[in-house]
Design brief:
Layout: H1 2-14, H2 20-38, E1 45-46, E2 53-58, E3 64-68, E4 72-75, E5 81-84, H3 88-91, H4 95-108
Antiparallel strand pairs: 1-2, 2-3, 4-5
Helix pairs in contact: 1-2
The chain binds zinc ion (ZN).
The site of zinc ion (ZN) has 7 residues, from loops.
């Protein structure tokens, strides 16, 4: 990742381009790679079923979970405004298909469901 960032940043800094579209392409590559590098797990992603933009988080059990990238405004117990990201499983119109995929992926992993408590 950092290799891509450095390579493209050097090309842009040296302005080696004869083609404007090539320069734009490198700029898009740099923007995406930098975003992914500094915000791991927040790279642009969309639901393959409904097309909604997603964020990915890792749960305390180590599983990856999709969240709606568009936050809603909520209030905590102290009355303070908070941004809340809902699980995409609760908002996707095709949530059943998502759950089936998740179950199939978990079944395909031999160590799934077992805690990693080896001492
Ligand atoms: Zn969806």
């Amino acid at each position: 990742m950092i290799d891509t960032i450095l390579k493209v940043a050097r090309r842009l800094a040296a302005d080696v381009y004869t083609d404007t579209e090539e320069k734009r392409s490198d700029y898009r590559t740099l923007t995406a790679a930098t975003e992914d590098y500094f915000n791991p797990g927040r790279s642009p992603s969309t639901c393959r079923h409904c097309g909604a933009p997603l964020l990915w988080v890792t749960t305390t059990s180590g599983a990856k979970a999709p969240l709606d990238a568009v936050a809603i405004q909520g209030m905590d117990a102290n009355g303070e405004a908070r941004r809340i990201y809902l699980s995409h499983f609760s908002t996707c119109p095709h949530a059943d298909a998502l759950r089936d995929e998740k179950k199939a992926a978990a079944a395909a992993r031999p160590e799934s469901g077992k805690s990693k408590s080896a001492q």
